[in-house]
Amino acid sequence: MINANLAAIFYLVSGILFILALRGLSSPDTSRQGNYLGIAGMIIAIVVTFLSIGNFSTSLVYVIILLVIGGAIGAFIAFKIPMTAMPELVAGFHSLVGLAAVFVAIAAFLNPAAFNLGNVGNIKLASLIEMSIGASVGAITFSGSIIAFLKLRGIMSGAPITFSGQHILNLIFGIGIFALIFFLCKTQATNIFWTVIFISFLVGVLLIIPIGGADMPVVISMLNSYSGWAAAGIGFTLENSALIITGALVGSSGAILSYIMCKAMNRSFVSVILGGFGADNSAEDKKDKKEAKPVKSGNAEDAAFLMKNASSVIIVPGYGMAVAQAQHALREMVDKLKKNDIKVTYAIHPVAGRMPGHMNVLLAEANVPYDEVFELEDINNDFANSDVAFVIGANDVTNPIAKTDPKSPIFGMPVLDVEKCKSVLFVKRSLSPGYAGIDNELFYKDNTLMLFADAKKMTEDIVKNLD
Amino acid sequence: MEIDPFIFRLSIFILSIFVGYYVVWSVTPSLHTPLMSVTNAISSVIIVGAIIAALAGTSESFFNTSSIFGFIAIILAAINIFGGFLVTQRMLQMYKKKKDKKK
After folding, report:
1. How far does B1 lie from chain A, in Å, by closest CA?
2. Contact residues, A window 232-291, toward B, CB-based 8 Å cutoff
């Protein structure tokens, strides 16, 4: 129908539209428009593919039917999913991209003629390398994302699973994959191709099981990045610029997010990947520290009283808010405070929650205007001038020990200077430590009032007491 | 000497990484979750490969092993395209400025 050159130009156009889609996200105002550009890019790519194949036989009907089925499933999920489940949704979607990449690579391997890559048993060398890399990275993305999904969903424990020799095993598998790809190029044997994919599935599992729940923001970003590289690998195989551009964009996007998340935890990427953070060894010494220290605890009435008499309140949300689904109650509380002319802002730590931007989405869902929500570096100086900090479901990201104790595992991690507020209200179910497995000094400060309850219930009680 | 077309594709790839690098750094942190879901949606452009594989069979035998993998990949990618873009849209709808309605 249309020749290959024209098709290539259209693919370039859709690649550019994808770039603009990401560009739109630089501000919430332009973001919706950006999303439409992304959709336009996708439509162009799909239509051009149909036209350039020009095969309008019965199989086209099947393709359309499958597109509709998949689309309906996707749309259903997109509308049904609660915002608190976004991390697992994204992990699940990553696994689909990974698996699709594997399947496309398999299809190309079994029928190279359809893709102009040579014939079975005599596939072009470069294409063979590209498709096996695409398939391998895709397989790692798939199984890794499945594990991340299970951990986020709570089906699998978030605790790191480690065993001795783990890293060596991963290394052997990693080298094994490269060696197999080398032999694959020499022999073109189908069995080797299947083995590469199988080992890659294993590597994906092994890579993610040792990583703990609090490191999930890094894992999700990393898998995001992998899914991009897998797409780029397939893009090289198919000689398709839309896929190459997209793969590069997604790959670098995920890599940057991983970097931002690692920096926000003051951990190196390598140490996150090697895993085992917050394992049992740190649980030992925290016990004896906890015993004697006095803690002030209060109830909803005290909290309401404190906030009513404040002139400015900063809210620090964390994963606990997501678990308790407390964002709507929180917003109700803030509305009441605002009616009393109290200035309320939100402070969000980059790694609050289980994925980058997790808290922002939840607050947006509760209709919190985004210009009241601030990032760590923009608001940290304001704590000293504020009356009340309301910490709801956050823990490690407020721990002042990160600034004072070089021996602490979180030393050097940027934290919110909550303790500088005149008083701190800390909603938490118990005194148990956060994911880093260390005690929070903030609990024992004179100006801290602990509110021991479920985040949602406590917030609702405070709302009642504010009347 | 003629330049291998691979080099051109490699150039596109490397330049796109740089474009991605600068574009993503300009994304505001509060939109990092929509960023992940939209990158996820666009990476499903891999459906292009799935369609090629699925339509490769002749009209007598469009169900060979290769095209079946293509068909499955189409479903997977389609879930992602629709799910990814729609959930991004749903999220972005929620990001609003302070209400002007309050007079």
Report:
1. 19
2. 232, 234-254, 256-257, 260
